[in-house]
Specification:
By secondary structure, the chain is of the alpha+beta class. The chain is about 35% helix and about 10% strand. It contains two helices and two strands, in the order E-H-E-H.
């Protein structure tokens, strides 16, 4: 595991056995390396928020849309 906003280098992957599983955000960074890890699996992440939070955020945004 690497910290959020990590700047990947080829050396970061030394000793890490495949497959590499990562988020879409980090996959973009990993695909820019000279040695693109293979196989590279990208996780799709979907946030599930409580209905009350969605309503609160929607109401807040609508205040600025007027």
């Amino acid at each position: 595991a690497f910290p959020d906003h990590h700047r990947f280098t080829d050396a970061d992957l030394d000793g890490i056995p495949p497959p590499i599983v990562t988020t879409a955000k980090d996959a973009v960074k990993l695909r820019r390396l000279k040695r693109v890890p293979q196989p590279l699996y990208v996780l799709e992440i979907n946030a599930v928020l409580p209905q009350t939070l969605l309503e609160m955020v929607t109401a807040h945004v609508q205040q600025f849309a007027r």
